[in-house]
Write a structure and sequence with these properties.
Blueprint (H helix, E strand, L loop, with lengths): L1 E4 L4 H12 L7 E4 L9 H6 L7 E3 L5 E3 L1 H7 L1
Parallel strand pairs: 1-2
Antiparallel strand pairs: 1-3, 3-4
Helix pairs in contact: 1-3
């Protein structure tokens, strides 16, 4: 699974804590989105058209976004 993140996001931190607590950190490929309002990461936009983080790309290509949804999935 690929998790799009930004180090400054409290929502991403919440997802990372849940992944750690459920023993799934080893299953995550944590990818820095390096986004800003002017220069968006186009790989992130392809995975999540809203361009928001966190976004979790599952192994089957399904994309989950919103930290509450991702935490519930994990």
């Amino acid at each position: 699974m690929k998790l799009w993140y930004s180090p400054a996001s409290p929502f991403v931190r919440k997802v990372l804590v849940v992944a750690h607590e459920t023993g799934q950190m080893g299953d995550l490929q944590v990818t820095d989105a390096s986004t800003n309002a002017v220069n968006r990461n186009m790989d992130l936009v392809r995975d999540n058209p809203s361009g928001k983080i966190p976004a979790l790309v599952l192994d089957d290509g399904t994309v989950l976004f919103d930290s509450r949804v991702i935490c519930a999935y994990l």
